[in-house]
Amino acid sequence: MNILGIETSCDETAAAVVRDGCEVVSNVVYTQIPLHRQYGGVVPELASRSHVEKIGEVIGKAIADARAAGVEELDAIAVTYGPGLSPALLVGLNAAKGLAMSTGAELVAINHIEAHLHTPFLYDAGSEAVPPPRLDRSYLGLAISGGHTNWIDIPRYGEYRTIGQTLDDAAGEAFDKASKLLGLGYPGGPVLDKIAREYGTENLIPFPKGRPREGVAALDGLEADLCVSFSGLKTALLRYVQRHDSGSFDVAQTVASYQEAIVQSVADRTRTALRRRRGIEALIVGGGVSLNSRLRTVLADLCEREGVKLLMAKPKFCGDNGAMIAGLAYYRRNVVGDDAMRVDATPSLEIG
Ligand code: KG4
Ligand code: ZN
Fold first, then answer.
1. Whole-model pTM?
2. 95 exposed, middle or buried (CB, 10 Å; 0-12, 13-18, 19+)?
3. Are both 225 and 332 inside the same structural domain?
């Protein structure tokens, strides 16, 4: 089954064709990062306009590349309907609806966060295949991106329940805001990652590890010790910078310490979740922050110690892309057919 996936929830215009849920036949991503860089963050109206300009070309190339690889026909068209920026989501959603109507292919509406959790199962056509998800096994999911930091119980592939999450900023946001504060550029994640990698993990400043107050999380029906808060860490960084005149503190040491605080708080909650849930098949990690080299190392060590398999996407599938939308659609028909035709952009769509 060949599915075209379309993704425009934030600042990537993306489309891909995926065969049987995991084999990526074509994958086209146009990133708007240079457009938003001058503003230090994504400007929704500019994002939407840029999606409109590029969507036709990106979808056209994904289909043409798939044809060149032997795909004759599309069986379904999958599209992100949330969460994300409303004017950006609408561009992809309308393009997908139009295409489904004109071709007669089935329309599938997909949750962006769930799609990130499918990325470890994606592989390029012609490269070594990755084992597909085990449909009858339970997993622990960690969705970690610019908008989300969620620990998700997956009792069976396709069933999700958020058991912990950030109570304020997402991990990616914490990276981006620190980078802005330190004048290091946008997006912050890759910049901070590189600086921290070169500095190492010796002699770090003890920034707070982000444990939220008990009770706050319990209100939302989440497990309090699986929640995290990054606002205290952000304030600690601000105070640290204010206390030191520019030039009188070591930027690399500060960045490495800040990153370590994020990584260790994420690892801590993940360890707690893994120990609480016995008999899980693997930890699935997805989202832009899963590109972070320190996080990858720390989670690999953690999973080895806990005796759990770690499933992380290849770097090319970590950021937003259409392949994760098309791939998940094969397994998880979130909203399909006529219902999908009626679906609206849902900016604050949750998972589980
Ligand atoms: O998944 P994604 O592309 O978009 C959302 O769904 O949000 O994630 C983007 C986020 C940004 O905050 C970016 O700074 C972060 O992922 N990011 C990283 C790294 N690469 C991207 N964070 C930490 N380390 C990285 N290497
Ligand atoms: Zn994303």
1. 0.95
2. buried
3. no
